[in-house]
Protein: Conjugal transfer protein TraO
Organism: Costertonia aggregata
Amino acid sequence: MRTIFLSLLFNLFSYVLTGQAYTNTVMVSGGIAGNGYGGELTYNNNLNESTFIQIALNVAVDNFTSGEINVPYSSFTASYSYFLTLFSTGRRMQVLSAGLGGLAGYELVNNGDNDLSNIVSVNGESRFIYGAQATAELDIIISERYSLVLKTVQFYHVNSDFGNLTNFSGVGIRYYFNK
């Protein structure tokens, strides 16, 4: 009985040590979204050495141009993605990952006002949006707890009036905890 207990304890201890090698992270990034700008806040839960899931909050601010009329619009989305490591250097100092996921959020058109002037009205409207996304990230370790991340995301908003395909490309800082 003592041998079984020690064996289980040893296996549990080994599992805990292995789990500590793959930490969770948070990241903040900013960059270009379409013809405007955007930002992202992410939380990564590393499943093992080569896969992780990412929960992200995204904001994009842009203008839709039709002739001489500019319509400001913003999108606020949350996404859930699964990532796979495509390439990493020997000690994982640089890691290239790709991910796919779903998103849902809200698209705000002209700050909620359907009239641009007393003559022109907006054809699109503010609404809830949903869709999918494809992401590529290059993670470059700069210290024990921080890394620089170069990121590009292609969003597909199924029901958007102002561009079904939107790209966000930016630079971020990732913080590793539980290490």
